[in-house]
Amino acid sequence: MHLSKVAVVGLGYVGLSLACALASRGFEVVGLDKDYEKVMMIKRGLTPIYEEGLDKLLRKSLDDGSLKLIYDYEEAVERSNLCFICVGTPSKPDGSVDLSYVEDASRMIGRSLRNRRGYYLVVIRSTVPPGTTINVVKRIIEEESGKSLGDYGLCFNPEFLREGEALQDIFNPDRIIIGCLDETSGEALLNFYRSFHGDSMPPVLVTTPTNAELIKYANNAFLAMKISFINMISQLCQNLPGADVKVVANGIGMDRRIGREFLNAGLGWGGSCFPKDVMGLLRFGESIGVKLPLIEATIEVNEAQIIGAIKLAEKLVGDLRGKNIAVLGLAFKPGTDDVRESRSIKLVEKLLEYGAKVRVHDPRALEKAREILREKVSYASSIEECLSGTDLCILATEWSEYKVLKQEMLEKLMKNPALLDCRRLYDPKEFERIKFAAIGLGPPNSSQ
Length: 448
Ligand code: UGA
What we know:
Order of helices and strands: EHEHHEHEHEHEHEHEHHHHEHEHEHEHEE
Number of helices: 16
Distance between the termini: 68 Å
Structural class: alpha/beta
Helix content: 40-55%
CATH topology of the largest domain: Rossmann fold
Bound molecules: uridine-5'-diphosphate-glucuronic acid
CATH superfamily of the largest domain: NAD(P)-binding Rossmann-like Domain
Shape: elongated
């Protein structure tokens, strides 16, 4: 079966990147979102999120007509023979997963399938707890459409896209995981990916939807655990004369079984995925009576990093009350304007709680940060302006723009030059004349 007309439901960074990538490889794509403003904005060639290379690809796909934006499910299903559901799965207040958008989308797709003839494949790409595709999506689609599996197809196919590198991750993924209930659905999706990737088809794992759903959660939880592991070691290093977590990470990362990636100690993991998914897995475990102690510890260590950074700041400049502090970087990681669950914002909020006066800077995320921090901090449009007259500079997100910091610059601009490196961007040797501290860097060892 060859399916080449695609509907993408939900145009966040996952859906929009996928829609543009497919359109650029010759697929006929319709994009759909419940947010009318967003659809109109995208239709005009504007991307609601910053994603490297996406605006160019979007304009090209709109210009050559390979991507169409519509607002109607019936029409979307009519114009396609395969749909990817990429809607959000936010957290409920208790940390469990809110499936209402997935349910809505399944209902609308199901309804639109009722009078549609011919095979149609529904692919869930939103991150959903194990069992959702079988117990929730399948039930809704069948109730609404009156069809049964075989007349239509259903797969769970997780995405592993990093924000900022979403396109690269779509074009060159490490693997494709296909969770399907019947062979026809699995084969149809596999064929679809074969035509998308051509000769550079990545490795594929075909399994049940439940396994595929768990793979996505376990994947994110493992990466978060890896970061928390090195952050735990960073706490050890901070109290160990002569120790440096960066060197320790380099050393253990040379073991091929461990690998160096995701061993960068710092303020911890944030963003729209890890915090939501790690908590979602914990709550899912509880819901079926299984305790997940490693996941609990992963969260605990992540929280401790913020207090750890506050303690380091106090070591450098004493009581933080009334101190003027410059915070560089607010995005949850470099290369994005996303501040959701940003560790830097959490740090700023903690500094304010301790009575500090905070001035912030970010190359891209200032506007989005303003929506959270409002009048509680002041905003600088340049690094120089941010540093000027302050008692402490904290590097919170490791944008390469901040590599320009030199001790002469800090001496010239700051009232009391002191630097706290929370993302290990700097070489401590280059800041020997001023007060300097870094996460995971032990006190100097005189006997070395
Ligand atoms: C993450 C995963 O990496 C993707 O594979 C996954 O598809 C995505 O979530 C998702 O579930 O949709 P992303 O949220 O874009 O992608 O961010 P990462 O690059 O993984 O970084 C997450 C957080 O960990 C950031 O706050 C980053 O600063 C932090 N981090 C990362 C560290 O503190 N240390 C590291 O060594 C690596």
